[in-house]
TrEMBL record:
Descriptive protein name: cyanoalanine nitrilase
Pfam families: CN_hydrolase
PANTHER family attached to this UniProt entry: CN HYDROLASE DOMAIN-CONTAINING PROTEIN (PTHR46044:SF1), NITRILASE (PTHR46044)
SUPFAM superfamilies: Carbon-nitrogen hydrolase (SSF56317)
Keywords: Hydrolase
Alphabetical list of InterPro entries matching this protein: C-N_Hydrolase, C-N_Hydrolase_sf, Nitrilase/CN_hydratase_CS, Nitrilases_CHs
Catalytic reactions of this protein: 3-cyano-L-alanine + 2 H2O = L-aspartate + NH4(+)
Tree of life domain: Eukaryota
GO molecular function, one term: nitrile hydratase activity
Enzyme Commission code(s) on record: 3.5.5.4
Taxonomic lineage: Eukaryota, Viridiplantae, Streptophyta, Embryophyta, Tracheophyta
Length: 347
């Protein structure tokens, strides 16, 4: 493994590249980005994303995966002024600012991300906070090297207090995209602990399984290894590395739940981004040292070799005993019959 120092601005970035001896035609160079949002400043975060994408592309990366909520921010430590039965005025104002930092899909920020994917000729998987009217969603966006927006995955089940600020995705946004570098899909953070949701991705043939997260605990690594083995796929997990100073200072932003406000240099999310092979081998990472570009060469032949041992929705399945039905129609709260009649006439 070679360690390549980065020239990027800010905290030092390290590219960790596993240089295997496999056939180059079946090898994909992938990078997971471990870096923090510029909180409440979406234009600055997009500028930072471009610097990181350019850096990864300079190493020959074909696929770049960003953390959960990189655009829009992961509001770590915030309660948004919520207690059971009440919401504070300060918390409502905090949500207004968070809502303002989110992005519309489609929208100008999506157009810029698509342009970046095209400019640097990469597949891009980006964690964002999506604004749909007045509801926010934790979302992953997918882009191809031709600068095309491919689609999105909305987090199906936000975790704990996330449910007061994010809406719930439905079965219509659980895509797996067939691309020249493999079939790419994503689940976000603790969604990856939902066996049936993972099985939905396996059923769509996912080969490069992206897992943007906000979980920096050691136990997260066990989940990532298990998914790689279970799915016979590469797992790319990207997390932010954040210090307290990466968030607005108090009293504008307060970390709740701690005995005392963290010092500005305190690490509040330690990263742990990692790339794992279908055999469960760690190819690069986990990194807990700082912001980093963590890269590896993925030998796609490893997928076939792993599936020979265990194909969870193939020769190792028993559909006559156990099966899964996924309701993948959009679930709309309001439908208009006149629109439905128009659509049926047009068809």
């Amino acid at each position: 493994m070679a360690l390549v120092p980065s020239s990027a601005v800010g905290s030092p970035l390290i590219a960790e590249v596993d240089m295997g001896g496999s056939d180059p035609s079946s090898t994909v160079r992938a990078t997971v980005v471990q870096a923090s949002t510029v909180f409440y400043d979406t234009p600055a975060t997009l500028d930072k994303a471009e610097r990181l994408i350019a850096e990864a592309a300079s190493y020959g990366s074909q696929l770049v995966v960003f953390p959960e909520a990189f655009i829009g921010g992961y509001p770590r430590g915030s309660t948004f002024g919520v207690t059971i039965g009440s919401r504070s005025a300060e918390g409502k104002e905090e949500f207004r600012k968070y809502h303002a930092a989110a992005i519309d899909v489609p929208g100008p920020e999506v157009d810029r991300l698509a342009a970046l994917a095209g400019k640097y000729k990469i597949f891009l998987v980006m964690g964002v906070i999506e604004r749909a009217g007045y509801t926010l969603y934790c979302t992953v966006l997918f882009f191809d090297p031709q600068g095309q927006y491919l689609g999105k995955h909305r987090k199906l089940m936000p975790t704990a207090l996330e449910r007061i600020i994010w809406g719930f995705g439905d079965g219509s946004t659980i895509p797996v995209f067939e691309t020249p570098i493999g079939k790419i899909g994503a689940l976000i953070c603790w969604e990856n602990r939902m066996p049936l949701l993972r099985t939905a991705l396996y059923g769509k043939g996912v080969e490069i399984y992206c897992a943007p997260t906000a979980d920096a605990r050691d136990v997260w690594q066990a989940s990532m290894v298990h998914i790689a083995l279970e799915g016979g796929c590469f797992v790319l997990s990207a997390n932010q590395f954040c210090r307290r100073k990466d968030y607005p200072p108090p009293p504008d932003y307060v970390f709740a739940g701690a005995e005392e406000e963290p010092s500005m240099d305190s690490v509040v999310c330690a990263g742990g981004s990692v790339i794992i092979s279908p055999s469960g081998a760690v190819l690069a990472g986990p990194n807990y040292e700082g912001e980093a570009l963590i890269s590896a060469d993925l030998d796609l032949g490893e997928i076939v070799r792993a599936k020979f041992d265990f194909d969870v929705v193939g020769h190792y399945s028993r559909p006559e005993v156990l099966s899964l039905t996924v309701k993948d129609d959009p679930q709309n709260p309001v439908s208009f019959t006149s629109a439905e009649k128009t659509e049926s006439i047009q068809k």
